[in-house]
Amino acid sequence: MSDQKTIVLKIKRRADQESPAYWEEFEIPYRPAMNVISCLMEIRKNPVTRDGKATSAPVWEMNCLENVCGSCTMLMNGKVGQSCATLVDNLTQPISLEPMSKFPTIKDLAVDRSRMFANLKKIRAWIPIDGTYDLGPGPRIAERDRQEAYEFARCMTCGSCLEACPQVSEHSNFIGPAAIGQVRLFNSHPTGAMTKEERLEAISGADGVTSCGNAQNCVKACPKQIPLTEAIAEMNRDVTLYKFKQFFRGK
Amino acid sequence: MAVASPENKETTRAKGRLHDPYLWHRLHSASGIFPIGFFLIQHLIANSYALRGAGAYNTVIRVYGGLPFVAVLEVVLIYIPILYHSIYGIWITAYGQSNLTRYSYGRNWMYFMQRASGIIAFFYIGYHIWNTSLQKYFLLWQGNPNPEQAISYHAMALQMADPLHFWIQVVGIVAVVFHFTNGFWNFCIRWGLTISARSQRLNQYGCWGLFFIFAGMGIWSIVHLRADGMRAELTQTSSAAGMVR
Description:
Chain A is 32% helix and 13% strand. Chain A is an alpha+beta fold. Chain A is elongated, with a radius of gyration of 22 Å.
């Protein structure tokens, strides 16, 4: 056993948002090409800490296991990322695992990202196509616009950009880069553009695009390389023009 | 199980224009360029007349000091905008939560430096205004026959001879100019002028260029003043020594 390679993990645990947090250390045998989730699964098989104390299995969220759902997002060695797509070989040991700090903890590594989904509702992140009669086909989308839109369509609401953002904290309810990127996406759709003022209005408050501090961590943290900072600059322009128009033209 | 989701308590519908946070934030951003940024450039250019000697410098002081409605211009174009920009800026800083230790990216450093330089600039400007403008009014109020003496070439040169004062000026100039040039970069994004990542990157190089030009200009001027001030101090002490002898 002594000459066998092992992986040491430190997991920050917490019964819920109100309970005190504590760390537990685990040691599991090394297998090549392991990712962080496979370590957690290994621990779950036999939840005994490094010093031999039996404990409960750590709780975390996972779903797709191929980096497209965003549910397994957590802090690994202090940095935000998807635990399904983060390889043990790329992390220095002991590997620390923490829940994201900008969302309420449900238990251990699982967090409640409802805030992000509420924000998607707030910015009306959909294209209204329902009517009491057949509205007919919508306008065509230029191929160039479609390609640009696709980049923003890859957002999986994982929360990495909010986690890395210095402007998102308990003192501020900044809706964050992800939602602003979605305004950019739905406003660039020819049918979505028909209700673009509603979305611009939704991001024109104190919690909206104006709360961005241009630290540009979001674009670095985004696992999908979504050009969030470009969306923020563009929405800055659009909201300002919308405000001017609203003031001078009324409505 | 689900923790109560913090639905945004605030309705974004403006509660009347004056309560519109967007307006106040834009005003903060705009005031940094006009009038404050314009004034800063004008101020650095005017002060660089020190390089042309006492005559040129004192003429510039007389011209600006003799502007019609100078007190109104000072209050409306300088004091009120700077006070508003500072107070709003401190409020913005208080709401942020810097995370440099986890994400030490270049722009994140700039985010931190923008706030740090703003705080330094706030205290420096307070010191600077007392030292130059307010002291004149203070002397006037005290019935000093020549209140302008507080801000002549000679007075500035002698002040710069004090190393503490000189280094406060250096730190102040660097902080203020950095805050302005990096603030200009922020401004270009905040108003949607530079949208693409490429334009933002190129603008960053441009802003660094502006930083070195304006900071260099300010520091060169005060280095010149300090050299003259130290010479004047030397002649003063040697002539005093002569009298004693």
